[in-house]
Amino acid sequence: MKRLFYFALMMSPLIGFSQTELTLEEAIAIALENNYDIRLVSKDVAIAANNVNIGNAGMLPSVSGNVSAAAGIQNTAQTLLSGEQREVRGNNTSSTAYGASLDWTIFDGLQMFTRYEQLKALRALGEANMKATILTTVYDVMSSYFDLVQQKQLINATQIALELSAFRHQTAENRYQIGQASKLEVLAASVDLNTDTTNLLRQRDQYRSTQIRLNELLARDVNQDFSVADTFLIESGLDYERLSQQAKQLNPTLQSAIVNHRLSQLELKRVKGERYPVVNVSSAYTRSQSSTQLGFATHSRNNGFSYGIAASVPIFNGFIQRRNEKNAEFAMEAAEIEVERVGQQIESQLLAAYQTYLMNLELVRLEERNREIARDNLNITLEKFKLGSIAPLEFREAQRNFVDASVRFSAAQYQAKLAEMTLNQIAGTLKMD
């Protein structure tokens, strides 16, 4: 039963990896379509784009239709100039009116044109935020995906260690049965076998947790099972100067800061426009009628067209205008400082990430050589162990060295890939490979 348990444990990861493979391109495509953050930000972008029209900027007139009706019952007494007196109790009166009116601001110090430019800048800001969200989501998906690749490699290395420990344990039992080994050797092999079994179970649990996290990023059933690729593809020729130029043009955080600076300039221009006069034109067409049982006219009807123009000029408002302009200037200067700060921050992040990238590339080469050496050493030690020419502890040490070297190599590859992804994310050119 014990041997059957270990056999099932060693085979179950292979069964898990035989599920349908999810490629990185497919994962990113699913995330771009389903991810909740992207879907929410896309709605903000749609609202900002929908707001860009001349009517929302105040360039178009407003037209309204008006209808009114009124009625009443009154007791009325009148004395005419001739001395005649008239009196009506329960006098019924009624009136109705309907028509259309137009109001149009034809000049407001060019503020309407500035507001239109602000609406377009807000749309650009939404697009920059959308790109930042997409880059962050793609980075998270790629990070989780390559973490699964790394863990899959670790599972394979741990499984090899478990198979060797099972072989060593069986060998120790066989030797013990024929009197060539002590019970202590069997117990030591059993302890190591249990340790490797625990390591494999923990590694598989970590793999499953990361798999669930990736499903969450993809906004799909978190219980969905899948396999991933077996290897990393690391780009080793990234150029710092090219990345720096791309970051200045494409980095969404810097683009957002630039758009905010543009918005502050437009706001200052709009505030200064409040110094100029505002000119409005209006017109209306009205039809009305009224009736009463007592008066000089018991029924009247009117219809006609009216129009006019009005202008207002700000003269003095308690220095509020000057204060608003000064505040707008301060806001514009602050936005300019923010652009410089973000630019320097991006440059610093890019340089630090590039140094990390170069170091990890060197570590990948170093750890790959170490893993090959550890594998050769394990193969030689295994053959000697089969011949009984080395002690079990030496075999166990070679086994540990191989697992540790495999872990370090996988970790170096993963860190190098993360560094590559970070560089492309900062530059705004994160690729899907």
TrEMBL record:
GO terms for molecular function: efflux transmembrane transporter activity; porin activity. SUPFAM superfamilies: Outer membrane efflux proteins (OEP). Its main location: membrane. One of its GO terms (cellular component) is efflux pump complex. The keyword Lipoprotein does not apply. Keywords: Cell outer membrane, Membrane, Transmembrane, Transmembrane beta strand, Transport. It is found in: Cell outer membrane. Pfam families: OEP. PANTHER family: OUTER MEMBRANE PROTEIN TOLC. Belongs to the outer membrane factor (OMF) (TC 1.B.17) family. This is Outer membrane protein TolC. It comes from Parapedobacter composti.
